[in-house]
Amino acid sequence: MNYIYNNLYEMLNAACRKNGGGVALFDDKTKIRYRELKQEVDSVAAYLQDMGVGFGDKVAMLVSNSTEFISAYFAVTALGAVAVPMNIFLKNEEIVYILNNCQAQFLLASAGLAKELKGVKQQTALQRTVWIGGMEAAETGDVDFAEAQRYAKQPDLSRQPQIDDLAHIIYTSGTTGHPKGALISYRNLFANLHGVEQVFKISKKDRFVVFLPMFHSFTLTAMVLLPVFSSCSIILVKSVFPFSNVLKQVLFKRATVFLGVPAIYTAMGKAHIPWYFRWFNRVRLFISGGAPLAEQTITDFKVKFPKATLVEGYGLSECSPVVAANTLEKQKVASVGRPLPGYQVKVVDEELVELPHGEVGELIVKGDSVMQGYLNMPDATDEVMSNGWLKTGDLVTVDDEGFIFIVDRKKDLIITKGQNVYPREIEEIIYKLEAVEAAAVIGVKDRYADEEIVAFIQLKDKAELDEKTVRNYLRQHLANFKLPKQIVFEQELPRNATGKVLKRVLKQQLEAQS
What pathway does the annotation place this protein in (predicted)? Predict the structure, then answer.
């Protein structure tokens, strides 16, 4: 496939030509127009370049949602350096691991995250930290991002990144062992941007509300880069709490595209939403990703927001990240849609032999969005990639129209008494109980090396539900071999930054108790 840009700086320049006076960013009461954003990107790029950042250098970013995140990211990539956006909820030793793994010499960091950065410079190759929002934690050689924003100089961009150069490294959540750095090129990103723009019919008139963490691959591609690709606007909401503020920004700034995770849509579907928001909001498209949507959530949401379209998509960091999505014209409940244009998918068995429509197997993906590999991990790369095909680790079925239905994670499959049990099927049933806020089902080995099914349930505020009621309900809907051996009520289920329940943490809790 041919792409119109080689890199993100070319994309930003094109947005300025098409819509220079248009609003790139709404940041609270401030409007930042495209020409102003480019000026700031140029200033920051020049400052970083004079500080020593060069082509191919890894520049880590531990930055909260902000205008500075966006200008810093574009500045780093404009220089041909490789951005390394990091999860802002990581702890000190996790930060140290990533910085050493990618050998970052420069770090952009929000001042509010300074606590976890104490002593990091002494354990890594970091030379300088650029602090955003304050210099209280500065050490010798550190600088203030505000100086970069004011820098009255143009960068030397005579060497520009080409389409197969690295744009950024996204570290996976590390479900087993250390997190792995997925190497994402400009080609990978443009494959996503072209496909998503086409499927969702994004135009210059759209306004994207952004409140999910920008360091996450889903938000970064679909809600930060895509609006610039389409020369439209980003409405920046710096915190999801209180959620009423998100809704207020959606209403007052006239957002048209809203990206959330299932936990958000579950809450919105069941919460009391003011009538004026339901009538006067201009959202045409709600997009869900990051984890599977429960069928009950889709049903509840359509009742609340009949004018808008809720579409579920699917992706993973290794695919930059979007792989598939339902379309505006056609959605299927419980499906993540069809592959984006230009992508190939197959459902295969353990030997990578393609299976017929309707059979459960692992989803593999091929296309320009597939990563170049994992940083410094050739064996891990070989485990997931074969002849250009990426093994996703997700068990799916595909119907005769090409719609993909996620059955479960391959690693989450429970085998009990020789029978395959898919946790998601049980979770879907539990979600139908009105009192349930969240549910997670896992398998735990017993002393005979068989697996027992354990269901964790989080109730809504002030809701009441007992184990007997749950068991009686499940018996009506599930075969006996699928019934949980244990039902555990938790005050709150552990989640990652995008709201996905962390099943590995639940397993660790059970193992610690046994």
Answer: Lipid metabolism; fatty acid beta-oxidation
